[in-house]
Amino acid sequence: MLLISCPYCGARAETEFSYGGEAGIERPKDPHALSDAEWADYLFMRKNPRGLHTELWIHAQGCRRWFKVERDTVSYKITSSRELSLGASEKE
After folding, report:
1. Helix (H, G, I), strand (E, B) or coil at 6
2. Which of the ends of the chain has fewer CB neighbours closer than 10 A, N or C?
3. Chain-centre distance for alpha carbon 13
4. Structure pTM?
């Protein structure tokens, strides 16, 4: 079982969390100016890297707060989790 460390509640089983997708995707400043292809690219295209990846997770069965997790997609090892507002500052 994967243990995920919620920055607010501590380590919990992965079954308490829901994956929220790739972190760091910014909404277009003027979405009305985008073509259909550009809008589809924003909505659906993700990097899906092999190795370290920053993701959004929600503690759905706990504090119900969103946070960032840095996880290796090959080994599933979580190297850090942090509050969204903390940016580069990490909590283990």
Report:
1. strand
2. N
3. 17
4. 0.81
